[in-house]
Design goal:
single chain; alpha+beta; three-stranded antiparallel β-sheet; 3 strands; about 25% strand; elongated
Length: about 90
C-alpha cells in the first residue's frame, strides 16, 4: 500500500470516529411526541441537546408526514402536541 493510501485511510477513520462521537454527544434528550392534525394522529421521536429542541424536532418530523405544503406544515407545527414523553 502506498503512503498516500495509508494517509487517506487514517484520515477517513478519524473522520468517521469524530462524526460518531459528536453525533452521540449532542443528543442528550429524546422525546416522543404525538400530534393530531386534520384528524390524523402521528407520533415521532426527536433527539437533541435540550428538551425544547427535541420536542421541536419530533413535531417537525410528525408534521412533515401529515401536512401537504408549507402553509399546512406551519399550521401543524403550531398545533399543541397531544402527548410528549421525554427521557434524558
Amino acid at each position: 500500500m502506498s503512503r498516500t493510501t495509508k494517509t487517506s485511510l487514517v484520515f477517513l477513520a478519524l473522520f468517521i470516529l469524530a462524526t460518531v462521537y459528536l453525533s452521540t454527544r449532542i443528543a442528550q434528550v429524546t422525546c416522543e411526541v404525538c400530534v393530531t392534525f386534520h384528524g390524523t394522529t402521528t407520533c415521532r421521536k426527536g433527539a437533541a441537546a435540550t428538551k425544547e429542541a427535541a420536542v421541536q424536532s419530533a413535531v417537525t418530523s410528525a408534521c412533515s408526514n401529515m401536512a401537504g405544503g408549507m402553509t399546512e406544515v406551519i399550521a401543524c407545527e403550531r398545533t399543541e402536541p397531544d402527548r410528549v414523553t421525554c427521557t434524558p
